[in-house]
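Issue: ligand-bound run for zinc ion - logging full I/O for the record.

Environment: standard queue, default settings, no custom constraints.

Inputs:
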Amino acid sequence: MIECDFKSPQLIKAISDIEAVNMTNIGVFIAFTIVGLWSASLVLLLLLDTSKFQIPLIVSAILWQTFLYTGLFITAHDAIHGVVFAKNPKINNWIGRIAVIIDALFSYKNSVKKHWLNHQQPGTEADPDFDNNQYQNVFAWYFRFMKSYLDLRQLFGLALIFNILNIAFKIPEINLNLFWIIPSILSSIQLFHFGTFIPHKRMEGVYTNLLRIYIVRKAFHYLLCGRL
Ligand SMILES: [Zn+2]
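Outputs:
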């Protein structure tokens, strides 16, 4: 019996088109799930009467919201790489824009610019995530890193939203701090530590040449983001 493995070019194209559509749909589905979960969860937590819940449950809720904040960053990151909705870059970029705005009123345009510099020139002076400070103190580096991504317009906007929610919508300050502010800070620390500090830090005597720094940095990025 002769086995025939032949697939016509049309059939191969049809299969790859179906796969591409499925991948595209998966990207959009995941992005909407993360944005939807983040929003719904935040609304519920802001309305929660914290006095009725035990501390472990409150801590779990903070960690859950931190996880979703990290998901927002990953969604924005995927949009920057054009893979959330590859067949329509406009919609893809709008999803990325929404993710960075609800994250902490970040500018998508700036995020795209900085992220590509980070990819194109990792571990160099041109890399916005790299800190060439002699001692590479993790705390000093984190504050410099955040300062480079946050500006006065964002801080003013976030303070305004905080006060509107607190005064006009009567959301208690404790809820805003526990479920909105703290998870956002914890997520930024997590992303900074694993996405910036570890892959970029200088390891004396081990990673002393640029090629090794580049390879380690790429490997960490692959592990965290699923792509180089
Ligand atoms: Zn990337």
